């Protein structure tokens, strides 16, 4: 027990002990947390092995530094066929690899809609037979092609994609243009209005953005916009309102002088301005661009991707190459649109947890207290969540800071060993898709990965540690 | 002394007592403040008189309700000559009335520049003789013409103004278009680049906005944008970043289809997008439009205007008609641009304290913690300031809420009796002008009104109370 002296005695009523500790900590008053949590069951031996890995400390420091060093700039917009060599019948999707038989409703719906968009079928329903046979179609994770996709994350050859580049390395990442909310392909809807919007995006919006990006006075600084967003109530996963407005600010002038018809430019401005989530599709590849800098760091226990396909939740780490560690995707707890309820929701889906992997989204909820009106929870929860995420991360991002926490950097670089040692799971803000193909969005909420994937990743890291040790011995 | 039990004993180091109380309160934990402050010296008798005024309670409730009920929409943009009947040689300025002899450097500089803009002189320096003689020129407060002006607040006939209207009453308020920061007329600069920019605003920007406002799908909802800004880190006095972006979003499409040359549209978008303060000139008249609804409320002790001309700080109250209660404007405490320091700054100037009068600006600092990097102070100070302003205001604004304070409404309706009873002065965020005419902005900071103007207003309210009592007796 502790006694705090106050010259003006306040009546503090019914303060939950943890809440007060979090509150004081949230105000940047130094708090030493001596609470001890048991490690995840069965991880003790692997934790001991990895803790003694002589590579770990430096590998993690270098991995984190590499991530923090990346500056993402918007350098091009072009169709996926051109950028990724995606051919007729080839598709990308969110999350770890999966086959049609195990694919969730919204992923199936998005693939069906994309098949119709590409002219493989005229009715999306006819695509079911196509994907069941698998003879002329194939799909693989966005992450395998330097891309990320929100929700179902389906990419087909004719879809235009943002191209982000890291100045220093020349590395690039890709993401489609955001369609808006409600009945949209990425939530598994494939009705005529969905396909019509996608065709307009292909015919008008993509080419307009390409000219605007090429003619802008300088490349849009996506990492810099993310810095500003965190000062403006966006956590860049489920709130991208300020980011969307800053993109309009930066691209608007060169859209106007692009030579496109004023009515098309005005419609494009209205489309972007009417969709507060538009910037998500730039935030995500910026996060992937940063995290990819840490891939292939032997000995590093840092997570470089968290991604869900609607059935499986998968992670990859810096020290385990392209291997996915997967478990069942969870149902989010949150707020529902209209008459939808928990029975309508599909388990967690999308590559958008790349934002949390990079230290924003749910990890930066403290800077976006208004998010609780969209994903549920309370303002103190939002502050406590960011604080808690510092316990499972390797460091802070000096560029992405949270004013209300006295400009503390966002918690960055999820450490598999810290997750296993504390049992604290990464907090993800997410949209919720309807579980039936064709429905679309049903809500938004909070979710975590399945706990078992972190011991799986830890075991793989421990195997590598032991293999290195025996090779040297 | 009080003891707070914690199951996880934290090490709380060197917490200032008031800071902790404010912090806990800022987190919406109920705190009963039993601290007693003496009333302002010499106000006891007037406080007793006004406290017993049978009109006061209802008059204040109605005045506050009237303010909260106003919804400001952007309905037109036109020159001051047309809107206000301002004629050649007539000017408006910020703050209470003043003559040339007592006018501060930045107000003189702005009048000199405006005289050149209007072609009364070719060299702004020649305007000094004109204003000294006073034969063909005159100036009066913006507030006397339903207008407000930031800093020097000078309006001349050719300047274009925003027109805001309250749907319900049809009442209107006016404000010029914002010029940007640094060397600008409102900070007292009048060099060739200042006048050139003002001419471009008159020739290109004003007419372009007029068409865009007329052709927009619906009038821009300025009150609604202010609601959003408070969720996006803007306090709408010294941070108007999100508001500026939302204005661009709302007017951009009709600017594009206005028929203006694309290069002019692009230049206008760049001009607005490059000036995070652009929206201030819409926030201010929206606040005036709301507060003017309370004017002429017999018995009300609510402040309806706080305004400064660089020499005098003046307030008006709902219960005392058009009378100004004035005292010497104070120097702000804040951060300076470049090599400027306290010796370069003019005392407080501008009508922009209308934002604080309406419950935002300094009163809403808690929602804009990043503001401390511009005006100085600390994040806990920002939270504490909003909390403190609730002690001198009549109520909260249910439309303008602060997420980090669990969506508590902004403290609204400064009560002269509460200020006198507690000695707590309204907190204002402000820009700082150079004290020498022609210099421009030198910094930004925090300031309060001179304390003595509140007892003066209280005395006038008490006189009216006594006059009513004796008329009835």
UniProtKB/TrEMBL annotation, chains A, B:
Matching Pfam families: AllG
Protein name in the entry: DUF1116 domain-containing protein
């Amino acid at each position: 027990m502790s006694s705090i002296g106050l010259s003006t005695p306040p009546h503090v009523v019914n303060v939950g002990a943890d809440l007060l500790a979090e509150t004081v900590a949230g105000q940047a008053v130094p708090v030493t947390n001596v609470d001890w949590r048991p490690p995840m069951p069965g991880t003790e031996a692997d934790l001991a092995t990895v803790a003694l890995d002589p590579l770990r400390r430096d590998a993690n420091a270098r991995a984190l530094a590499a991530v923090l060093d990346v500056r993402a700039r918007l350098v091009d917009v072009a169709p996926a066929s051109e950028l990724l060599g995606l051919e007729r019948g080839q598709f990308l999707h969110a999350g770890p690899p999966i086959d049609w038989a195990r694919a969730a409703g919204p992923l199936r719906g998005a693939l069906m809609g994309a098949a119709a968009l590409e002219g493989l079928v005229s009715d999306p329903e006819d695509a079911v037979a196509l994907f069941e046979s698998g003879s002329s179609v194939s799909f693989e994770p966005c992450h395998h092609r330097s891309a990320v996709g929100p929700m179902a994350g389906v990419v087909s050859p004719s879809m235009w994609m943002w191209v982000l580049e890291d100045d220093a390395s020349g590395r690039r990442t890709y993401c489609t243009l955001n369609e808006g909310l409600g009945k949209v392909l990425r939530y598994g809807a494939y009705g005529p209005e969905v396909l019509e919007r996608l065709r307009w995006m292909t015919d008008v919006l993509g080419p307009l953005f390409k000219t605007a990006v090429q003619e802008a006075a300088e490349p849009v600084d996506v990492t810099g916009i993310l810095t500003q967003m965190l000062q403006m109530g966006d956590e860049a996963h489920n709130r991208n309102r300020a980011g969307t407005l800053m993109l309009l600010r930066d691209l608007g002038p060169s859209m106007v002088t692009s030579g496109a018809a004023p009515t098309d430019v005005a419609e494009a401005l209205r489309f972007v301005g009417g969709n507060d989530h538009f910037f998500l599709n730039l935030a995500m590849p910026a996060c992937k661009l940063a995290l990819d800098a840490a891939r292939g760091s032997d000995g590093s226990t840092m997570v470089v991707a968290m991604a869900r396909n609607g059935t499986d939740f998968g992670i990859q780490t810096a020290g385990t190459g392209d291997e996915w560690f997967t478990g069942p995707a969870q149902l989010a707890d949150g707020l529902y649109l209209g008459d939808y309820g928990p029975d309508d929701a599909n388990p967690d889906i999308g590559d958008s947890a790349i934002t949390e992997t990079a230290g924003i989204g749910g990890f930066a909820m403290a800077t976006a207290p208004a998010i609780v009106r969209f994903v549920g929870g309370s303002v103190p929860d939002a502050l406590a969540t960011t604080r808690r995420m510092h316990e499972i991360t390797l460091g802070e991002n000096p560029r992405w800071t949270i004013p209300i926490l006295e400009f503390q950097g966002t918690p960055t670089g999820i450490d598999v060993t810290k997750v296993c040692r504390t049992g604290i799971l990464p907090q993800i803000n997410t949209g919720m898709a309807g579980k039936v193909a064709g429905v679309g969005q049903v809500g938004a909420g909070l979710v975590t990965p399945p706990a078992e994937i972190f011991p799986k990743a830890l075991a793989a890291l421990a195997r590598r540690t032991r293999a290195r040790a025996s090779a040297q011995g």
